[in-house]
Amino acid sequence: MSQKLDLRGLACPGPVVRVKKALEETESGSVLAVVDNPESRENVQRFAKSKGYGVSVEEKGETFEMTVTKGGEQAAQAGPAAAQAASAGELVLFVTTPLVGDESPELGAILARAFYKTLLDVEDRPDRIIFMHAGVRLSIEGSPVLGSLKDLHCQGVDIMSCGTCLDFFGLTEKLAVGVVSNMFEITEALLGAGRVVRI
Questions:
Q1: Which of 11, 83, 146, 161 is a plausible cystine mate for 131, CB 3.0–4.6 Å?
Q2: DSSP per-residue string spanning the chain
């Protein structure tokens, strides 16, 4: 059974929430989700893959038609891996400020540069770094820690920056590492993590 969701004009995380709800209401089948911007397309794709669902995208003019399939061979193959990752529990670094500490901005900037550089050398590095509020300033062009973040990303660390926060500060076009994320995805990542360290 397939159902169609017209999600055009819906602000994030609305498209992900609607697709998730539709899939929860069926044991197996697919949902055709129509979105009208690349951010919604990427958010739905990441959600589908994280749950082990099959997903295909067809671009039609200014819209994207996404078929998300629950059940079937692809989900069966991806599902156990997703479940294993969830049960192991990720180490998530939750960053809401571009500084380390708040007493001295100058010292905080020095410590931030040292902290992210040191993450490259430690054995127990995070699986994921989530930037929110003013913390998104670290994942943009010109960030003093951008080099370290790019190296971490190349070594397998997922980097997510809050789309609402980037938009609020007028920085969306300056994102230089990782992906633009949304509140639904961030909330799931934090609640599903084995450990969360806040900076």
A1: 161
A2: -EEEEE-TTPPTTHHHHHHHHHHHT-SSEEEEEEESSHHHHHHHHHHHHHTT-EEEEEEETTEEEEEEEESHHHHHHHHHHHHHHHHH--EEEEE--SSSSSS-HHHHHHHHHHHHHHTTT-SS--SEEEE-GGGGGGGBTT-TTHHHHHHHHHTT-EEEEEHHHHHHTT-GGGB-SSEEE-HHHHHHHHHT-SEEEE-
CATH number at residue 173: 3.40.1260.10
Q: Name the residue range of residue 10's domain.
A: 2-86
CATH code at position 49: 3.30.110.40
Q: For residue range 85-125, what is the model confidence (pLDDT) as tens digits?
A: 444 578 999 999 999 998 899 999 999 999 999 999 888 88
Q: State the catalytic residues.
A: 12
pTM of the predicted model, to two decimals? 0.69
Domain count, the chain: 2
Q: Say if CB 197 and CB 115 are below 8 A apart.
A: no
